[in-house]
Structures are given as C-alpha cells and as structure tokens.
Amino acid sequence: MREKLTLKKQSHDRITWRSHEPSRLETFSDAVFAFALTLIVVSIEVPKSFDELTVVMKGTFSFAFCFFILFMIWNTQNIFFRRYGLKDGYTVALNGILLFVSLIYVYPMKFLTTLFADGTYVEHGEVLPRIRTEQGPYLMIIYSAGYVMIYLLFFLMYKNAEKKVVELDLTPKELYETKTTAYINMINMLIGLLVIIVVLIVPVKMAGACGFIYFIIGPSYAIWYGYRGKRSRLMFG
C-alpha cells in the first residue's frame, strides 16, 4: 500500500521523496496500525438476530471515524518517512511513542464516537448512561491530550528533519516547506491545548460543546497554507 501511494503522491509533493521502499521501521509501524484497527473491530460480535444487527450497524459511524483518524495518522507518518527516510535514534524514538499513543487512544476514540450512536447501555436489565455529566470534561481532556501528543510528535519529527538540512541535502524551497509542515502540526497541537484550557474554564455542562473548537482546524489550514504559499511564490517564484 505504501508503494502505491508513493507513486501517486510523489509527483504532487513539493519535497523530493528520498525513500521509496518501506524500511523495517515502517513495516513494524504498519503492523501496529493494523493491530489498532483490530482492537476497534474485535469488540463487534457477529449478530445473532436482526435486532442485534441493528445495534451493530449503529456502530458504523464509530468505526468509520476511528478508521479515518488512524488512517490520517498513518498517512502523515508515511509521507514523513517518504520525504526524508530518516532512521536516526531520535526519529525511531519519536515514532515508537507515536505508535504507543495511537494504540492507547483507540478505545477512547471509539467510546467518544459511540456516544453519538447511543448514549445508554443495558446492564442486568437496567438502562444506564454511558457517561455522566460530571465525567464529560475528563473525556474531552483525555481525547484532546491524545490529539496534542500526536501532533507534538509530528512537530518534533519535522523539526528534527529541519536540523538535518545538510545530511538530507534539502534545497532552500524544501527547507521552507519542511518548516511549513512543522508549524501546521504545532497549530494542531495548540488547538488541542485550547480545547483543554476551555474545558477547564467553562461550566461542566458545557464541556461537550468544547469539541466544536476543533472546527477551526479547517480555517487554520487555509490561512496558514495560504500565507506560506504566497511567501513561497515571492521567494522562489
């Protein structure tokens, strides 16, 4: 899969790809992401009746959301290694932490999206809420902490690549694009931190609404890449 994406995306990337064949590190990463997807699916049992099938289908959105998040993390990691092919100890350590965080946050991600499908569950014949009002802020903090951690790791990985400008033989334009990507990861990290801060400030009942702050990600990308694109054209033509 990595090889097919390599051929398709390389022609559209502003940074020359220095790695084309998956390394052992990337192969291991693929196995970890595959295991993370298994953790999402394994809790879904084969339905024994149509009623159970209906309940299972309610989890489709949850699975789709979790799959999208994991694919986004995997794809970002894939592009990084294709661009720079770094295998130094620092990069390996950051990638290892990234894989660990991805595995840890599989179930919190799925639980968060499950709330949209059904806010209750049945235990011993009693209908219980999946989460109490006072627990809402903690869930948002857990989710946002994972988001912050993932983009912090990507930020550090790109800053490390930036320092190896001579070793990687980066052109001035490639170095510029590397910095652009590094700081879009920092912007994502700051958005996650903003959510945590707001959750700690607002009343408990409003904690869930803090998730709407993530909708500023789209405009942030547009503004940042628009600004950097304009500067790039002025600097490099």
Describe the structure.
By secondary structure, the chain is mainly alpha-helical. The protein has 2 domains: 1-130; 134-237, no CATH class. Helices cover 70% and strands 3% of the residues. It is built from 9 helices and 2 strands, in the order ααααααββααα. Strands 1-2 form a two-stranded antiparallel sheet. Helix 2 (24-41) packs parallel to helix 5 (89-104), helix 4 (60-84) packs parallel to helix 7 and helix 5 (89-104) packs antiparallel against helix 7. The longest helix is centred in the C-terminal third of the chain and has 30 residues, at 172-201. The protein is globular, with a radius of gyration of 20 Å. The relative contact order is 0.10. The mean pLDDT is 85.
Shape: globular
Biggest β-sheet strands, sense, barrel: 2 strands, antiparallel
**Average pLDDT reading:** 85
Strand-residue proportion: under 5%
Gist?
The protein is mainly α. 70% of the residues lie in helices and 3% in strands. The radius of gyration is 20 Å and the shape is globular.
Question: What's the structural blueprint in terms of helices and strands?
Answer:
Blueprint: H1 2-9, H2 24-41, H3 50-57, H4 60-84, H5 89-104, H6 106-117, E1 120-123, E2 126-129, H7 136-163, H8 172-201, H9 217-236
Antiparallel strand pairs: 1-2
